[in-house]
Specification:
With about 100 residues, this protein is an all-alpha fold. Helix content is about 60%, strand content about 0%. It has one domain (about 5-100): Cytochrome Bc1 Complex, Chain D, domain 2 (Orthogonal Bundle), CATH 1.10.760. The protein has helices at about 5-30, 50-55, 60-70, 90-100.
Length: about 100
C-alpha cells in the first residue's frame, strides 16, 4: 500500500504535464478552430501538423500566425481564405499558435 501514494503522485504529475496540450486543443475546439482544421488531415484549412512543419524554425512565424488567426488570411494553403476569428482574443491566439507550432 505504500506504493499507492507514489503511484498517485506520479499520475498527477503526468496529467499536469499533459494539461497544457489538452487545454490548447480544448481551446481550439471551444473557439471553433476544429471546424476547419484537424490535427493530421486537411479539412477546409490545413492540418495543424502541416502548419507546424511548414513554419518550423521561422522566427516570425508566431507573430505572423497570430495575426492570421485574428484577422484572417489566404493564399498560403490554397484558394480558400481563412476568415478572421472574432471570438478569439490576442492572448488566446498566441496560446493556440504556440501550441500548433509545438506539434510534432
Amino acid at each position: 500500500m505504500k506504493l499507492l501514494p507514489s503511484l498517485l503522485a506520479g499520475t498527477a504529475l503526468a496529467v499536469a504535464a499533459l494539461s497544457p496540450a489538452l487545454a490548447n486543443q480544448e481551446l481550439a475546439q471551444k473557439k471553433a478552430c476544429m471546424a476547419c482544421h484537424a490535427m493530421d488531415k486537411k479539412i477546409v484549412g490545413p492540418a495543424y501538423l502541416d502548419v507546424a512543419k511548414k513554419y518550423k524554425g521561422q522566427k516570425d512565424a508566431e507573430a505572423k500566425l497570430v495575426q492570421k488567426v485574428l484577422k484572417g488570411g489566404g493564399g498560403v494553403w490554397g484558394t480558400m481564405a481563412m476568415p478572421a476569428n472574432a471570438q478569439v482574443n490576442e492572448a488566446e491566439a498566441k496560446q493556440l499558435v504556440k501550441w500548433i507550432l509545438s506539434l510534432k
